[in-house]
Specification:
- The protein is 5% helix and 32% strand.
- The chain contains 1 helix and 6 strands.
Length: 80
């Protein structure tokens, strides 16, 4: 079974903002913003994407609280 380490809280986000160096905040899966039922769907049904090595990945929205910077970060699944 493969699971996203960020969704499950195994990894703490430690990415500095490229504009102001404040720590970026994790805003959840990108697919959770699509509609009311997206958070209840599995990652494979929403935003699971193949990486170059044939493994799935999970896209997360990250943002800065100090400036208007935001981006999407892709995290690989972890085999559990």
């Amino acid at each position: 079974m493969e699971e996203c380490p960020v969704c499950n809280g195994w990894w703490q986000l430690a990415i500095p903002c490229p504009n102001c160096t404040a720590p970026l905040q994790e805003g959840g899966r990108v697919a959770d913003y699509f509609d009311d039922y997206s958070p209840y769907l599995s990652i494979e049904m929403t935003d699971g994407a193949e990486t170059g090595k044939g493994r799935l990945s999970c896209k997360h929205y990250v943002y800065c609280q100090q400036c208007p910077y935001e981006e999407t970060v892709v995290f690989p699944y972890t085999v559990v």
